[in-house]
Amino acid sequence: MYHPLVPINRLIRFESYEEYYAQRIYKNFLLFSYIGVVLSLIYIPFDYQIHAPKGEFFYVLGGRLTTAFFAVMVVVAVAFSYFRNHRVEAITIFGTMGFSATVVTYLLYGNSYFFAALAWMFYLVPTIMLAPLLSKRIYLIMEAYQIAFVAFMMSWIGSSADDLFIYLFFAIPLAGYVFILVILNHRISMEAYINAYQNYVLMSLDSLSNLLNRRTWYEESHRHWEHSKGISFMMLDIDYFKRVNDTYGHECGDRVIETVARILLEQTRDYDIVGRLGGEEFGIVLPQTDLHEAQAIAERIRHTIETTPINYEDHIIHVTASIGVIENSEHIDKFATLVNQGDKHLYTAKEQGRNRVISG
Question: In what helix (H) or strand (E) does residue 70 lie, and over which residues does it extend?
């Protein structure tokens, strides 16, 4: 989910709105779902005492077990990844079917509107819990079905017009009230998500280059290095950057940093990890890339930097960059070692005259 207030940067690995709240809601919702399973079974002994003498216990038991089945299916929908892409819909359908079975059991064999209302109130609680993930369309369909189903059952068993009126007089405003809660909860949740995203951006990105800052870059790069050894690393440094600052001023130096950062984003792939490590120094981790491919990418970056004019006031400035490239190997036991090796190749490039790629 996208919001225009949230800046887009392909380097940011932040959960989507749905993923963000799924991690925070479903853990507690799973516990509530277990309670639903227990409650759907706990009354069976009492049902036996009440309905066995009337010869209708097995009908009541069938209703209870049907409710329990759908309660278990809610647990399954929450706990198993099979429903990951349609979890809210699955929970809604299974919960609504469980509620329907409960209502049928109460109205046919207990004729207790009070307990039917309590069952409906119980199913409204998870509705509110799911509010950040629940769309208005799903809610309206679910509640319209539940209200209509209960009204139909009451008419079918011969409830009086007064009873039906009281039920609708109670149910429709309550559903409307919960609908308002769902809308407000969703809006508040969206604002909280945007704030969390923006805070993450502020903590993760270098404000000048819009690349990953040193801390975040090391964390992301080290995570990739641990899980996939087939990576290469590139260390880049802008040549004679101090001379640019001394000649044209620090504002011009900032323009150079921004231009080089833009080139790095344009010339790397979506899954490459690009960061500003400090000053005029940049680091790039290239997943699933051997040394030959990394050299080609580095040379393309070097050439683009060299041939890109940088306009500052009345001046057109050209800068170059030196790049050290290293491929990970079984002899490298730490990510820091990979970075140090790339740094050594970078200094070799500088010693050999700058504006070149040195690999090893």
Answer: helix 57-79
